[in-house]
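Treating backbone geometry as a discrete language has practical consequences that deserve illustration. In the encoding step, the backbone of a single protein was reduced to a row of integers, each denoting a local shape. The amino acid sequence and the backbone structure tokens for this protein are reproduced below.
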Amino acid sequence: MTDSSDPEALARAARLAQAADARSRRSDWDQLNAEEATLGSILERLATAGSAVRLETMGGPHHGSVTELGPDHVRLVDHGRWRYLRLSTVLSVEAVGAHDGPGPDRVARTFVEALSRLVGETVTLVLADGAAHTGTLTAVGSAIVTLARDGPAGPLYASSSAVAAALGEGSG
């Protein structure tokens, strides 16, 4: 109990009460930030902090530096290999190693719009069930993605919404 006649004791008690209140507010904000975190905000924070990431998906793990964040996708680069991953297929995120290069670019284009920029390139499309198909991306529409494959298999027509990732070489 504080001596009400001692001004220094009253001031000390007031400072302690203010410090306790500030800690409580900071704790509340930390909890709110954690509850409102999104995959995009977590990936951006990790990349900005200098961390590379490991993303676990149904198709397996993907490692790299986050170079692009869209409203529904992330672009990772690792040793010259790039990959576009649909955020809805990411099961977990871990920080691993150091991030190469600057923080990620925020872009407005969607996953399907990012895929459309890859037409003519050789890619591996990973579908939501984990199946992987390699070939030349020949068309990307809002409903169907077309992949020309070598050999007797012929073209693959995949539902755009079923494409979980596109993997490739080089700068992408």
About this structure: The radius of gyration is 24 Å. The longest strand covers residues 60-69. Residues 7-35 form the longest helix (29 residues).
